[in-house]
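Hey, quick one: can you model this chain's 3D structure?
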Amino acid sequence: MTLFIYNTLSKEKEEFQSIEPHKVRMYLCGPTVYDLLHIGNFRGVIFFNLVRNWLERNGYDVRFVLNFTDIDDKIITRAQEEGISTEALTKRYIAAYLEDVQCLHITPHELNPKCTDHIQDMITFITQLIDKKSAYVSEGSVFFDISRFSDYGKLSGKKLEDLIAGHRVDPDPTKKNPLDFVLWKPSKEGEPYWDSPWGKGRPGWHIECSAMNHCIHGDQIDIHGGGIDLIFPHHENEIAQSESLTGKSFSRYWMHNNFIRFGNDKMSKSLGNVIKARDYMTQFHPEILKFLMLSVHYRSELSIDNKQTHQAIGRLSRIYHALKTAQELSQDTQATPLPFIETLNTAEQRISDALNDDFNTPVVFAAFFDVIREFNQLCNQLKKKDPSLKSAAYALSTFIETKGALFSLFQENSDSFLKALDMILVKEKNIDIRHVEALIQQRNDARKNKDFSLSDSIRDKLTDMSILIQDTPNGTVWEMDKYSDSVD
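Sure thing. Here's the predicted structure for all 488 residues.
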């Protein structure tokens, strides 16, 4: 495998080479747990799950760590508002996060460290930075001295002189430099605190990830991930303090996923357009959220609105309809038509090449749909009992299930999932199922009475309601039209 990853540090795609042969140490900045997470918080979780799966599929032993920030100003404020301890608050939302991840059916991370479980590691880390003259104590606080790290700005591309010139007001006169960032700060009255050599206080945000990384992974890691909003200052500061301590390159590859937009606007609390992941998965389905997240390249902005959601429903319907048909016909007869074998082989190579090209997931899904289109053509050309069709069906279902597992997609029961999609649209369009079934019965009666004019008019009425019907040997079946918004 020759995998190329876009490295935010070098600003170009680089061939992936792990520090230790066949082993990967990966760290993803996790959530600050003071509320239910919005869908943007899950883009990195879903994408880096794919990264881990692809590395493991190619023989790497991956240790994937995602942390919980469980001490923070927002946490303290929310806990005070609710009249509970910060521990009780964060315990609630960590549990909620884990429940949401379980709904997504993605592989659990190897470790989910909490900041408060590593306070002593942070104190040790800070002490060593002070000993190296990279940090200094000032009135009970400890600050990192950015003048001691000559490479400051190498991840974000920001120049120190520009940052200083643009920093008009120094909010803390106890700092040597307005850009020096806090490693340890005194706790205010009524706030949680830990004893330290500098007094009662708590760690700054940036030191948390560096200390946990150092404790769990050691001096160096292979991949550090997060959203692009973390590049500066969080990841820049992680690099400064970590490399000042060890004298080694902190992370070999930095990978950042882009923002999520709601229509034309960036999703943000100030605009009131934040969608909680739990609400979205309840209204729609976790499979839809995963598919949407991966349908766009991770370094591109992703727009999530009703149009995008309905397109995802249509595209997933095509995949699951093909999977359902394949599973019903499937038989390993070793008689797969040669052109279809070639299509599968071509698709498999396209998927592999796309994933190795900085995880180009849009190309991956295009390959899926090419295979499905050819399978559907076979279904139209061959009889159901044809051994070659049964073998093609077996090959397709195996292909979708095994390749889909990389993305934690296409593992749902096809019949149940298609019905779930129907119910989403039924609810959305406020359709009375009893009325639909009554219309179908009226149409069946009209057909028995050879009143084809009435029969056709009822079909047209159902079509206007976005309901598709099909007459089968076992009776008339119906489903919602899930394909009108699909682009495939």
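One thing worth noting: The first strand starts at residue 4 and ends at 7.
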